Amino acid sequence: MILAVDMGNTNIVIGCIDKENTYFVERMATDLSKTELEYAIGIKTVLELYKINVGDIEGVIISSVVPPLVNIIKRACKKVVKKPVLVVSPGVKTGLNIKMDNPAQVGSDMIVCAVASLKEYEAPFLFVDLGTATTLSVVDKDQNYIGGAILPGVNTSMNALVSNTAQLPKISMEAPEKMIGTNTIDCMKSGILVGHAACIDGMIDRIEEELGYSLNLIATGGLASVVIPLCKHDITIDDALILKGLQIIFDKNKNLLK
Questions:
Q1: Architecture of the domain delimited by 97-242
Q2: Which residues are catalytic, by number?
Q3: I want to staple 77 with a disulfide (CB 3.0 to 4.6 A). Which of 60, 115, 179, 183 is the partner?
């Protein structure tokens, strides 16, 4: 069993996983003001909540799109688990062929999800990650990571709308009962959530048109369970996708652990 950690701009996804089981997946708020000790307490609490024996954890792997937090989380994990910590970075073996203008610029979370998808699903595929940004990434029929698209995430869009208007409130992320809202809250739910789903549907259609073939469709991220059911395409939700990828990469790089 390993402890897998993915640091995003809004949430930190943590979980314990091995080749057979995903023992839990949880999210903690990303907070640049927190200390190493505060993160260590949070990680320790989650492990205790799920009755995970720290002695059963072989090691830790971290992916991150928040560089200032990497060393803080790394030290916090070492404080709790007292095992080697691997950070996904250039030089770490992934087995992924990246056909991008600058492969080093591809986010580690996208690489990890692509690695997991190649094992769990049949190429060609597109995976959607719904976080602070919503990203659509494509692996072609030759199993090459060829790129995708980035758009503002659901919460990012809502925050921009609320902060730039005088009377629109923040809303809870629940699907509207109908498309045509009859009050401000339902109108916003329809626009933000169904609108985002329609955007994903439209992007998928255009990407498949450009490629000239259909794609298997996968989704992950904190809001996948809210947005993806509103899409017209048949999209598989996999909450543990990034943890599965981290498990694979950990196994490929055990020799780098110190």
A1: 2-Layer Sandwich (3.30)
A2: 109
A3: 60
